[in-house]
Fold this sequence. Notes:
Histidine-containing Protein, Chain: A; three-stranded mixed beta sheet; 11 helices; 8 strands
Amino acid sequence: xxxxxxxREYGSGGKDxxxxxxxxxxxxxxxRKQILEEMKKxxxxxxxxxxxxxxxxxxxxxxxxxxxxxxxxxxQSHILKNALKNNVVIMGRGGSFLLKGIPFALSVRTTAxxxxxxxxxxxxxxxxxxxxxxxxxxxDEEMAGAVYVIYGRHWDDPEQYDIVFDxxxxxxxxxxxxxCDELMRREQFNTEDNRKILAxxxxxxxxKAQISIDPLLSVSKIDVFPKEEGMTDYGxxxxxxxxxxxxxxxxxxxxxELSLGAPIECTIHYHWQSRFK
Length: 277
């Protein structure tokens, strides 16, 4: 089956469309609530940090904070783990960027003129137009900022998505039908090779997350990524910077254990500066 990711302007109806597609296709619906539940299983502090960073754009100091790096890594890992199960609608949270290049994943963006979005939010939240506009502007700013900080992409760039819908031009029902048709068409690309690429991405994200949230490791930078080009050189690559020389061996051993037998190349550099500075 296929995977759907939806990026939405606040008030454009993306959630309603996502739920309609999930119901029609028999897909699981993954949104903020589901991710928070999954974060809670890792630890209540990660659930709390997810709530905080969902509602507040991190400042310069926070972007280099251990908790923020852990939050980002865990969030990405949970999204890819859910995508790996297929038959899923993933709302926001950078899913469109994480799954870019996976042929059986469809990325959709929903937009609408500000007047229509204000009208929607007024109805949904039972508030006046001034408060609705404030909520829309705040939500859009936070989501755009988070995407740029994490992925270096412009959230509102239509080139980043497979299909962009103006929900003021078509009904939610019509949009949902179009999406369902495209998802069924993309099922032909759910091949063993493409599933293998997605599985490697999920494995890489899990390794990065598990190392990033380990409070005993002095990791200041880490990236783990799969070798996907043609899948001729199967394996993973880990790049990291640490502030404790002993952590190099520990991370290498942990990465090999978490890689589940997949070949992994580790390049870890030691930097003397304290991570607490």
